[in-house]
Design a protein that fits this description.
The chain is α/β, with parallel strands linked by helices and 266 residues long. It is built from 8 helices and 7 strands; from the N terminus they run αβαβαβαβαβαβααβ.
Length: 266
């Protein structure tokens, strides 16, 4: 009988024949991860609140082998949208194997100004992650196959932010830190409950990956706190997401993989 020792490393990292649903796949980091999954051979379902944007992002993805990409609308803050979007993804692909919970509705409000409703709205991102993950689990158990869930955490789910980095503007939102710490713990909880169902649940926590619109002074202060003295580039998440989605991580569940340039090693 063949076993993992009979598969070479490139085969372990391959996603050929797999269908992967990526939420928030039109954004800066989401699009890089979706591209990586497609490059590894997956058929990628690109989801966004805006189906037109999802379709445009889908068209840009590379196609390896017989992969067929799809686009669906999912607002992961809306439970009805989660159900309809997942059902559409299932119908279009015939079966989803991997879910990447990357979608995120941000808040600009820090601890000084955020209201209770705004704080709860930020935490609703975790609710959406849970509902989508549970939907994936029900789906693969019903099919009699295994499945993979990858949550997106953050270095700020592990450590507090430096107040001096944000000294001339709003602080890093307290609600965001509560959210990402919760996502990491949700990962652990679901991993142990779903392991015997053949469902692996892991988390990918990026460090500082500011976009082009980030204020240069803020970026400079962030660089001063990083052991590598620079910010992350979107393509630097590509290897990590393929690892977590593929059989290369088949004996890993409940883990939080941190890609932060050494930020949390201080």
């Amino acid at each position: 009988m063949s076993g993992p020792q009979d598969r070479d490393v490139m085969d372990l990292f391959s996603l050929r024949g797999k269908a992967v649903l990526v939420t928030g796949a039109t954004g800066r980091l989401g699009s890089a991860m979706a591209s990586a999954l497609a490059e590894a051979g997956a058929s990628v379902v690109v989801s966004s609140r805006d189906e037109k944007a999802a379709r445009q992002a889908m068209e840009r993805l590379p196609r390896v082998g017989g992969a067929e990409h799809q686009a669906v609308a999912i607002d992961h803050i809306d439970e009805a949208s989660i159900e309809s979007g997942f059902e559409a993804a299932e119908r279009l692909t015939g079966g989803i194997d991997v879910l990447v919970n990357n979608g995120h509705e941000p808040t600009p409000m820090d601890w000084r100004s955020i209201t209770g409703d705004q704080f709860n709205r930020q935490l609703a991102n975790a609710t959406g992650y849970f509902l989508l993950a549970r939907r994936l689990r029900e789906h693969v158990v019903g099919r009699g196959t295994g499945g993979v869930v990858v949550m997106l955490g953050s270095m700020y789910g592990l450590v507090g932010s430096y107040p001096d980095v944000y000294e001339d503007g709003a602080a890093n939102p307290a609600a965001y830190q509560a959210l990402k710490g919760g996502v990491i713990q949700l990962t652990r909880h679901l991993a142990v409950y779903w392991a015997r169902d053949g469902v692996r649940v892991n988390c990918l926590s990026p460090g500082p990956f500011p976009g082009e619109a980030a204020p240069p002074k803020l970026v400079g202060r962030l660089e001063g706190k990083s052991p590598m003295a620079r910010m992350g580039r979107p393509e630097e998440l590509k290897g990590a997401i393929v690892f977590l989605a593929s059989d290369a991580s088949s004996y890993m569940s409940g883990h939080n993989l941190v890609v932060d340039g050494g930020w949390t090693a201080w």
